[in-house]
Protein: Enzyme od the cupin superfamily protein
Organism: Herbaspirillum seropedicae
Amino acid sequence: MTAALVLYRASGDPVSTAFRPGALGAADPFAALREIAWQGIGGMSAGRLRFDGALEIARFPHQETLVVVQGELILETEGAAPLVLKPDSGVVIATGAALRISATQPTLAVFCAADCPQPVQPGVFPLVAEADFKPSLNALPKEILLGDAPQCRSDNVVDESSIGCKIGTWDSTPYHRIVRAHPVNEFMHILDGGVRFAQTDGSVVTVEKGDALFVPKGEAVGWESSERVAKFYVVQTVPAEGGK
């Protein structure tokens, strides 16, 4: 299995990732719409979904991050202005949220979801590229770097400690590091720049602005960027387990 699973390419080029139809449980509102690329421990999954029409959801059954890559989604919750998601914008929907989701045209979104029975942060949270960046607290170890240390910043919109999950926006100056086991499950949607992910077999997966991918915990990948990179991210710390 390729370590870096590409979920979408903004260029329109096909991806080699294998998808299968499936639901994330009996109450999944997108059950008939999903294309799942990976599933693992804790109900975590990643893939894409195609949506057109409207859904009234009384109680969202899990935590889910959605990033629109084609079309437009409209999310409506009581007491708030409608949230309109166009390409390269996203949202985090917590377990228990009541909302209406609609699309006036065929829409494609990439997703990363996880079981979260009792969320610390209930609600619906937009993801924005122009985030409130703060210096990242966890510096990369010197022994894994192949060159200068980067300056990294992040903005955690959701810090769901109940399941070890953080979601938000991140950016970094260019850097290069060795191929190593990825320490977390991570979903990424690239907002700016490009990254080359080296793999143990010598192949390289390249992603650019508008692309989305998922790297399971324990899969060995490197990182090389030659310009500023910004991304939406979902990271979850869990015991490593083979996904499918």
About this structure: Residues 134-236 form a domain with the Jelly Rolls fold (CATH 2.60.120.10). The chain has two domains: 5-127, 134-236. The radius of gyration is 17 Å. The mean pLDDT is 95.
